[in-house]
Write a structure and sequence with these properties.
The complex is a heterodimer of chains A (160) and B (324).
Chain A (H helix, E strand, L loop, with lengths): L3 E7 L2 E7 L5 H8 L18 E4 L2 E4 L12 E3 L12 H8 L9 H14 L5 H7 L11 H18 L1
Helix pairs in contact in A: 2-5
Chain B lengths: L4 E4 L3 H7 L5 E4 L5 H6 L7 E4 L8 E4 L2 E5 L4 H6 L1 H6 L1 H8 L4 H6 L2 H6 L5 H5 L14 H4 L21 H8 L3 E6 L2 E6 H4 L18 E8 L4 E7 L10 E10 L2 E10 L6 E2 L1 H7 L6 H8 L14 H19 L2
Parallel strand pairs in B: 1-3, 2-3
Antiparallel strand pairs in B: 4-5, 5-8, 6-7, 6-8, 9-10, 10-11, 11-12
Classes of the chains: A alpha+beta (160), B alpha+beta (324).
Chain lengths: 160, 324
């Protein structure tokens, strides 16, 4: 099986890699590019731990082939902060203890960012619906939902 | 896991050429195929990436809408003209999967997703769909989620798509392309009953591709009601799509299709017939709903679907009938 050469952009950086046809994007991120912030949970698209944003779409990296990233723009959790300055969602998750074991957190943050990018003024129902693809076995979701709603409210405040 | 080669198609003709190999599979959203591959159920030697073909266009016309097979579920659900004129499609799409899956999965792939029958998905238990002739453990086993319509002694697995149920109620057609050209197949003819060949689920032949779904215009009032075990990211236990044309308070046309109950999307023709010419009121909806489960053949664990289907039909009629 020959390897596929892929030219793509990851977290704003032009990136090239070789991957096996059967390597998922999640495998490529973690095993070839050492971007291990993106987690593997179920490996079947049910848990959202591997959520990444590809060309402004939230997807599961476990259900995408590495070869499919050709020419795309990929955002992972490693690209969410600006240097040492955390993204407001990251800061709020810490302040509100919206995480415990942390395995779901990178995917949850990326999914929350994708949600707010599309809908800056979500209702609680919309947040819960938008994050339905991200499972968390620790928090009971309430702190996560409140953190996302708080960030949305603060961002509306600052852009007013 | 089984290794495969990868080829990216840039033109539909090239994709069809590559697919002459019997061990090739098309991949677009990948949300079902990669699950099946990881479970060892799909074992292609070649994955043909069709996700960049220009078959993702949603094109409304006066008499209907053509939805490209590679349009993503989320893009179709968010399309303002789909929402305004075919809300049934938008509702059905938003009732399924998660944001991640709706963003990746395509219209064509959704229609071709395989059943969620746990025996099929196990990858190693007997299953006539996956390993023809090996038997169907669902018939005498755990069959709460299985079909009450259209089953055979070889298979009772339900079709899992919400979209297909909406399309069945809208009399949509599937445009199929193959080496010999393209043809239009009504959604009612697209899916096959399991009979004694449950491994064949559609009329699509090896190397053929869905290019688009054609949906006729409708003046109907629509509702998609989905009953499931949790509020989101779950397949239907029972779902009903209703499309009602009401003139001066009288039902002029009624189209009803159900999911979660049939081995393919199931039109409820007797319930439809019971509505025509009736005043669109609670009494007529009750009378029609009572006909919804006629002919059902429940199994040991799914007899509850007989009554649940009637109630879901009643709810869908109330919601659709109540829309101005």
């Amino acid at each position: 099986m020959s390897k596929t050469h892929v030219t793509t952009t990851i977290n704003g950086e032009p990136t090239e890699y070789l991957c096996e046809a059967s390597q998922s994007m999640l495998d490529v991120l973690r095993d070839e590019l050492d971007l291990t912030g993106t987690k593997e949970g179920c490996g079947s698209g049910d848990c959202g731990a591997c959520s990444i944003i590809v060309d402004d779409r939230l997807v599961c990296a476990c259900l995408m082939l590495g070869a499919e990233a050709e020419g795309r723009r990929v955002l992972t959790i490693e690209g969410m902060s600006h240097g040492d300055k955390l993204h407001p969602l990251q800061q709020k998750f810490i302040e509100m203890a919206a995480l415990q074991c942390g395995v779901c957190t990178p995917g949850m943050l990326i999914a929350a960012k994708a949600l707010l990018d599309r809908n800056p003024n979500p209702s609680e129902t919309e947040v819960r619906f938008g994050l339905a693809g991200n499972l968390c076995r620790c928090t009971g979701y309430d702190k996560i939902v409140r953190a996302v709603l708080d960030v949305a409210a603060e961002q509306r405040e600052t852009t007013r | 896991m089984h290794a495969f080669d990868y080829a990216r198609a840039t033109e539909p003709s090239q994709a069809l050429d590559l697919a002459r190999r019997p061990d090739a599979a098309f991949i677009a959203g990948g949300t079902d195929l990669l699950q099946l591959w990881k479970a060892g159920i799909a074992r292609p030697e070649l994955m043909i990436d069709i996700s960049r073909l220009a078959l993702d266009i949603v094109k409304p016309r006066d008499d209907g809408i053509a939805i490209g097979a590679l349009a993503r579920l989320s893009d179709v659900a968010d399309h303002p003209i789909v929402q305004a004129r075919w809300p049934l499609i938008a509702e059905a799409l938003n009732a399924g999967a998660s944001a991640q899956v709706r963003n990746a999965a395509t219209i064509g792939g959704n229609l071709l997703q395989r059943t969620r029958c746990a025996y099929f998905r196990s990858g190693d238990m007997p299953c006539n769909k996956r390993a023809p002739g090996s038997g169907c453990p669902a018939i005498g086993g755990e069959n709460r989620s299985h079909a009450i319509f259209g089953g055979s002694p070889h298979c009772v697995a339900t079709h899992a798509s919400d979209l297909a149920v909406a399309l069945a109620a809208l009399d949509a057609s599937v445009r199929v392309a193959g080496p010999a050209g393209s043809r239009l197949v009504g959604i009612g003819d697209f899916y096959l009953l399991p009979g004694d060949t449950p491994q064949r689920e559609t009329v699509l032949g090896q190397g053929q591709l869905i290019c688009a779904v054609d949906v006729p215009a409708t003046a109907g009032r629509a509702a998609y009601v989905k009953v499931r075990d949790r509020a989101s990211f779950e397949f239907a236990v029972v779902s009903v799509a209703a499309d009602l044309v009401i003139d001066d308070g009288i039902v002029a046309r009624a189209r009803l299709a159900a999911g979660g109950v049939g081995t393919r999307p199931w039109r409820l023709t007797e319930a439809e017939a019971a509505l025509i010419g009736e005043r669109a009121d609670a009494a007529a909806f009750d009378k029609a709903a009572a006909q919804a489960s006629n002919g059902a053949e429940p199994l040991a664990h799914n007899a509850f679907k007989v009554e649940l289907l009637r109630r879901t039909v009643r709810r869908a009629l109330q919601v659709a009938g109540g829309k101005a």
